[in-house]
User: Fold this.
Amino acid sequence: MADTESEVGALDRGRDETKEERADRKWGELIQEVRVAQTGVQILFGFLLTVVFTPRYAQMDATEHTIYIITVVLGATTTGALISPVALHRIVSGRQVKPEAVRWASRLTFIGLVLLLATMTSALLLVLRVATHDAYVPWLVGGIFAWYLACWFVLPLWTRYRYTTD
Assistant:
């Protein structure tokens, strides 16, 4: 993190805000982003938890059971990572560590997005295997995985590289 005024100005690209104001702004932006991801992963995780109680679960083969267990564990870890910024904020609130809390919450959110990528891919693999059992399923899932990678990571990283200096 920058310590001098000239470094702070360079990092903020002209914003006239204190370290605390910047942390408040970044926190608000982060929480809005997390809300979108949290809602989707919580709905997905809720549906995943119900699968084991359906008659179709008993008809799934051993590979599908394994994929299901992996998907549920991934869904649980994703949910934990995407909810963790709220717990972090609640525990450190009022302790004058918001810039540090924003950094950690951002890292946890990124981890949550990586886990969400794995959860979505695994869930898609399970659903398509159960629905079709066709040989093209791995290719279809691989294509969608590549699409997620491109949308969630490649394009943002390219934009960061292309249009920023830090």
